[in-house]
User: Fold DUF3048 domain-containing protein from Neobacillus ginsengisoli.
Amino acid sequence: MRKWAVAIIAVLLLLAGCSDKKAVKEPVKKEKEVTKPAKKEEEKNQYPYYFPLTGKGSQTQTDGRAIAVMVNNHPLARPQSGLNKADIVYEILAEGDITRFLAVFQSEKPRNIGPIRSARKYYMELAKGLDALYIHHGESPEAEEMLKQGYINDLDGMVYDGTLFQRASFRKAPHNSYITYENILKGVKLKKYSMDQTPPAFTFMPEEDSKKITGNDASSVMISYSSSHTSDSSFVFDATLGKYKRFSGSEQTVDLETKEPILLDNVFIVEAVHKIVDSGGHRSIDLVSGGRGYLLQMGNVNEVEWKNENGRIVPVKNGKVAPFVQGKTWVNVVPTNPGLEKSVSFNVKQ
Assistant:
C-alpha cells in the first residue's frame, strides 16, 4: 500500500508540473500573435477613400456628381449663402467690373445656395470639365445656344422660378434667387439626370508635405479687377489656422446664415485673355491656352504656369502638375491686360 501511495503522489506531481508549464507557455504564444507591423499598416490605411476635389480622406465612399452653381458677387448680393461648403470656387469677371462665382460642391452638401445668377460660356466650360450638374438663373445668348444643344445638364431658374428656385424677400431682384440642395435633388429627379458621374480628381500632396512648402513669403494678397475696386478681393493667411481668409474690400467673406468664414487651403491666381464680344459687354475668356499664375499655399507664394487638362485648370511648375494642399481651393482669373503684375499685389511679412 505504501508503494501504491508513493506512485500515485509521483503521478500527481508530474501532472501538476506539466499543467504549470502549459500555463506559462500560453501567454507567450498569444503575445507573439500581436505584432506592431499590423498596427502600422492599419494606421497607414485609415482612409480607404478620398474626395476628388479636396483630396481629403474619408471612411465612407466619396463618389457622386459635383454640383456647379453660378453665385452672384454684386455688392448687393453679399454675404452669400453656401460658399463655405464649396470644394472649389472660380471667380471671374462677368460684365463690367463685377465678378461672378462658380461654386463647386461635392464633398459637402450646403443647405441653401445663392443668390443665383445667369450662365456664361466660360463658367459652363469649367463645370463641364468636372462633369458637374450646372445651376444658373438665366443665361447670355451664347450660353443659351450651348444649352439648347445639350452641352451640359442644367437647372435654370428662369424655368423653375418660384418652384425649385425661391426669391428671398430681404433682397431685390436680380440679387434674390436661391436654391436649396433638397430642391436641386428634386430637379435632378424631375429631369431624370444621373448623379453617378464622380469628377476627375485633382493632384494633392500628402498632408505631411504641406508643412514643407517653400516659396516667397506673402502674408496677404490683393486682387484688383478695376479702378472702381468694386470686385477687389484679398486673402490673408492665418498662421494659427493654417488657412486663408477671404475678404471683399474690407469685409470678410462669411456665410449669410451661419456666419461661418470662408477658409481656404489653396489660392490659385491665373491670367487669361479676355475679349468683349458684343454691345452688351459679354466676354470671351480663353481658359484653354494656358498662361502664367501664382499659387499661394501655407503662407507662401510660387510663380507657376497653368494649363487646361481635359477641361480643368491646373497649376504646373517645372513641367509637372503642382499638387494642391488637401482642402478647399479658390481660383481667381484676371485679364492678361493689365496682367498679373498690375492686378495682384502682395503684402510681405516684415
About this structure: Residues 1-16, 18-43 have pLDDT under 50 and may be disordered. The domain at 207-347 is CATH 3.50.90.10 (YerB-like fold).
